[in-house]
């Protein structure tokens, strides 16, 4: 007979004594259990003791988390959080440097636990740490562990960031501003500054006053990727919190070409221009870029492109002479004409001449092309791109305009209209104006290799558009078709993640219109869906076989098992647990792991079991209980898409967050298959389409002149001897 569900068998350690094996009744108060344990070792004052998980985390067991205790868990009897906090509060003030260092190490480790953190903070421990930092008497490891403990304590969001003094902020900023600083101290100082900026608008202003571009750039020029990552994170945080007017400094700099000293609130502007080579060195380093660095570069890329949003959403004022002068400049460069004085020729003659030239330039409104730029998006951004192209790639600009103006009207590629639509398309591709995603790592290295990356990107693409137009022998009626092909060319080239704009250009040269047609034809052949009645009947006949094959694959993957991360609200991802299905498909085995496994985890090493027969439902997304908790993983979209829960018994749940979309689909499909429900994931649809297409093609092979025997061929007789077999021994 199985033991009651409320009874768990554990081992409990106490320093200097043999571990005890005990049965813990989860219905009993935790204080009563601790008292019983203390009595077993003849220890008095049980209120001064507590239980911890005996692993690298050393987290305290409380009434809230005691349900995490599983059969086979190893616990440790230790001093209570209150007692430990009092002891460490005294020890870190020791006059002995060695004793103080050991105390700070213990504090940094203990502060990861929220139960201890609450008690230490109640003793005004945060204020003590900030005073130690402000005093400036500690250096090296002493300072490093002080800052580590501070970061761990603040991670629990118990204390508001707004409570810190200007003196503390100045001190942390000074560690960043120093050219030679201990790596650990610098890393934690950068982390503190990032948190300050992200969690307080008031602190943003104070931090921005203390940090200049001169102090941050050297940290990007080093070789330590962690330091580089934290530095870019600070840049991103400052830019996210910067007022709108300061974000637009980049655009003003673009027009004035002045790259003087700026506050860190516009550091991204300076990185985008004067110091872009620094970011290039980061990206092209010999060290592989880790996920966190990739995410920070992605955020920096998004924020940089979002600077374009203001121009993208600004309509042109047809009455603004300065804006109209830009159009006059485009005409002057293209046709090498000087602006005529107002008294030269009749008004009608000048209007006729302007209309003719604006038509050659490809504007929709030949009389007043300013009207073309009243559409948002792309607004004035399109005109900015056209002017940049005309000034910085003058030969290519003149060639395109004159080449098209010499063609028949219906075959000309209208430069003005094309530029406006292309700018709008590029903004859509790069998602200009959208906030960065929390878990995305999709950055493009080529955009970090030029100080005017978006403008150069446009210049390459407008020349591609003109080339594709000629290859397609397009007319004005084919404009939208050409734009669709150009979009496909750009997207396919970006997929390869070129390291430079030159590589992107080379990639586009290999994606001519002819090549796109070949790719499309190949994809159509692979996805061909015949609609004749016999073919449809064959598909219907085959489909159940394919679905059964997919089902077996999903169940086999569940039998192999998957390692899942335990993710807290602070995004600490140091713990793992493993879950797998038994070979007979009747039981889910699961249990905690100390580290990520290198292969399959045996069933007998997983302590917990859940009979499949007890599973009532599979819940996904925001309906999962661990997604409904307050502040659970910041409720970001990516985590919601990977969350699922298994409901069993009355209100019990086994909660999952899949490592990626593929594992999410495999597990939700497999669990639904176990419950006899339909597998509805997007991967099931994709697998069905792929396997069904392959099976259809195999069955519809051209078998002309190939005689198919009605019976299988006979098995050949055994040979008279096996002398032809090579003996490996």
TrEMBL record:
Ranges where the ELMO domain occurs:
322-494
> Which Pfam families does this entry report, sorted A to Z?
ELMO_ARM, ELMO_CED12, PH_12
Q: Where in the cell is it found?
A: Cytoplasm; Membrane
InterPro entries the record matches:
ARM-like, ARM-type_fold, ELMO_ARM, ELMO_dom, ELMO_domain-containing, PH-like_dom_sf, PH_domain
Q: Name one GO biological process term.
A: cell motility
Location (main, coarse): cytoplasm
Instruction: Look up the domain of life of the source.
Output: Eukaryota
**Gene3D superfamilies xrefs:** 6.10.250.810, Leucine-rich Repeat Variant (1.25.10.10), Pleckstrin-homology domain (PH domain)/Phosphotyrosine-binding domain (PTB) (2.30.29.30), SH3 Domains (2.30.30.40)
What are the alphabetically sorted keywords of the record?
A: Apoptosis, Cytoplasm, Membrane, Phagocytosis, Phosphoprotein, SH3-binding
Q: Which GO terms describe its molecular function?
A: SH3 domain binding
One of the record's GO cellular component terms: plasma membrane
Q: What does this protein do?
A: Involved in cytoskeletal rearrangements required for phagocytosis of apoptotic cells and cell motility. Acts in association with DOCK1 and CRK. Was initially proposed to be required in complex with DOCK1 to activate Rac Rho small GTPases. May enhance the guanine nucleotide exchange factor (GEF) activity of DOCK1.
Name this polypeptide is given: ELMO domain-containing protein
UniProt source species: Astatotilapia calliptera (Eastern happy)
Gene of this entry: ELMO1
């Amino acid at each position: 007979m199985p033991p009651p569900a409320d009874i768990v068998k554990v081992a409990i350690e106490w320093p200097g004594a043999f571990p005890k094996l005990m049965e813990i009744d989860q219905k009993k108060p935790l204080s009563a259990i601790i008292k019983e344990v203390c009595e077993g070792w003849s220890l008095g004052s049980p209120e001064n003791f507590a239980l911890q998980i005996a692993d690298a985390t050393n987290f305290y067991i409380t009434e809230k988390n005691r349900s995490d205790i599983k059969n086979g868990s190893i616990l440790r009897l230790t001093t209570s959080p209150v007692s430990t906090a009092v002891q460490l509060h005294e020890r870190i003030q020791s006059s002995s440097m060695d004793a103080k260092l050991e105390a700070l190490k213990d504090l940094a480790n203990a502060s990861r636990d929220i139960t201890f953190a609450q008690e230490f903070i109640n003793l005004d421990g945060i204020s003590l740490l900030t005073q130690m930092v402000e005093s400036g008497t500690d250096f090296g490891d002493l300072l490093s562990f002080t800052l580590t403990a501070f970061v761990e304590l603040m991670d629990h969001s118990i204390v508001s960031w707004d409570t810190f003094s200007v003196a503390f902020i100045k001190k942390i900023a000074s560690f960043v501003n120093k050219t030679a600083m201990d790596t650990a101290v610098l890393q934690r100082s950068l982390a503190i500054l990032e948190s300050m900026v992200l969690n307080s608008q008031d602190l943003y202003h104070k931090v921005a006053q203390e940090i200049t571009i001169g102090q941050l750039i050297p940290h990007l020029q080093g070789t330590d990727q962690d330091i580089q990552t934290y530095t870019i994170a600070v840049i991103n945080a400052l830019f996210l919190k910067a007022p709108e007017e300061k974000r637009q400094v980049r655009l003003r700099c673009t027009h004035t070409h002045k790259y003087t000293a700026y506050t860190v609130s516009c550091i991204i502007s300076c990185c985008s221009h004067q110091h872009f080579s620094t970011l290039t060195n980061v990206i092209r380093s010999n060290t592989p870029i880790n996920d966190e660095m990739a995410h920070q570069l992605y955020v920096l890329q998004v924020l940089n492109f979002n600077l374009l949003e203001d121009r993208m959403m600004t309509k042109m004022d047809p009455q603004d002479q300065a804006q109209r002068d830009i159009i006059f400049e485009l005409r002057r460069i293209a046709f090498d004409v000087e602006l005529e004085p107002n008294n030269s020729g009749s008004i009608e003659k000048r209007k006729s001449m302007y209309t003719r030239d604006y038509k050659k330039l490809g504007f929709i409104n030949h009389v007043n092309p300013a009207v073309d730029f009243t559409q948002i998006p792309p607004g004035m951004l399109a005109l900015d791109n056209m002017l940049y192209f005309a000034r910085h790639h003058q030969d290519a600009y003149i060639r395109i305009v004159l080449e098209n103006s010499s063609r028949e009207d219906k075959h000309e590629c209208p430069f003005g209209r094309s530029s406006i639509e292309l700018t709008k398309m590029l903004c859509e591709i790069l998602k200009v104006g959208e906030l960065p995603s929390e878990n995305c790592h999709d950055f493009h290295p080529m955009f970090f290799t030029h100080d005017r990356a978006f403008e150069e990107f446009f210049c390459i693409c407008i020349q591609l558009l003109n080339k594709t137009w000629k290859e397609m022998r397009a007319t004005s009626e084919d404009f939208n078709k050409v734009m669709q092909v150009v979009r496909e060319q750009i997207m396919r080239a970006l997929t390869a993640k070129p390291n430079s704009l030159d590589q992107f250009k080379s990639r586009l040269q290999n994606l001519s219109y002819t090549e796109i047609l070949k790719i499309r034809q190949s994809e159509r052949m692979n996805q061909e869906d015949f609609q004749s009645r016999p073919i449809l009947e064959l598909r219907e006949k085959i489909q159940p076989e394919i679905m059964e094959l997919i089902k077996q694959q999903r169940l086999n993957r569940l039998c192999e098992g998957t390692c899942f991360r335990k993710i807290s609200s602070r995004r600490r991802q140091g713990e793992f647990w493993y879950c797998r299905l038994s070979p007979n498909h009747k039981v889910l085995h699961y249990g905690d792991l100390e580290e990520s496994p290198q292969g399959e985890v045996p069933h007998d090493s997983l302590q917990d079991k859940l009979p499949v027969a007890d599973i009532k439902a599979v819940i996904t997304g925001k309906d999962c209980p661990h997604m409904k908790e307050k502040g659970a993983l910041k409720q970001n979209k990516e985590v919601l898409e990977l969350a699922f829960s298994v409901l069993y018994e009355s209100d019990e749940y086994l909660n999952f967050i899949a490592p990626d979309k593929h594992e999410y689909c495999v597990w939700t499909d497999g669990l639904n298959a176990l419950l006899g429900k339909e597998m509805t994931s997007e991967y099931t649809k994709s697998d069905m389409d792929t396997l069904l297409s392959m099976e259809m093609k195999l069955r519809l092979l051209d078998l002309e002149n190939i005689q198919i025997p009605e019976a299988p061929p006979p098995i050949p007789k055994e040979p008279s001897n096996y002398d032809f077999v090579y003996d490996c021994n």
